[in-house]
Amino acid sequence: MPLSPGVHWLSPTLPLHVFEAQQPGPTALIQAGIHGDEVCGVHALQELLEEEIRPTHGRLLVVPVMNPPAYRARQRKAPDGLDLNRCFPGDAAAPEREIRLARKFMDLVLDERPALVTTLHESHKRYDPEVNPSFGQTIVYGVEPRPPIVDRTIARLNERFGGDNEHFDPQYYPVATSSTEVIVEATGCVGLCIETWMGFEEPRRVQMQRAVVEFLLDDIGVRRLDG
Asked: How far is residue 205 CA from its own chain's centroid?
């Protein structure tokens, strides 16, 4: 059953913000901080929440810090913990915190059935098609054909960010064990991973992450600025 508008808690320290517009429309779920050393998506979502981003149609769910212990440590995973991004679909009875949390998030997705699930990531490597793996400045998807929203969003990003090495590329990189791929397989939603390159200064990366969230919400029809 979909959650009511407001702030809910997936764990004692994991807030989930739920917004519902008066006009009907799709649901979008955006999260960051599944890896604790990838901070700019966290900051972008926190800024957008502080500025009271709201859907004009449908529902918007935001989890600004998916893995608080890892984020506090500024490490990919919590000290002595597991990589949360590899714990899906999870198990409510597991002793490991990450596996229990993955199950809670998976249950949320199955209840909400969002049209779009987006995870904000960052990468130490700038994307180069000749270097595998490399991710920075890409929108990563795991199904073919490529969801059309990818190309439309990249076009808008590349109009805004024109500095050296700032342009974005699409990247087909299916990883069956990633949270996004598990969610897409279970729900059929559009699932995307956004990767900014850590070679840029942090404020610039936050700008990029903010822009991609806004562009995706515009495109999916959750935030229609034309009314």
From this structure: 15
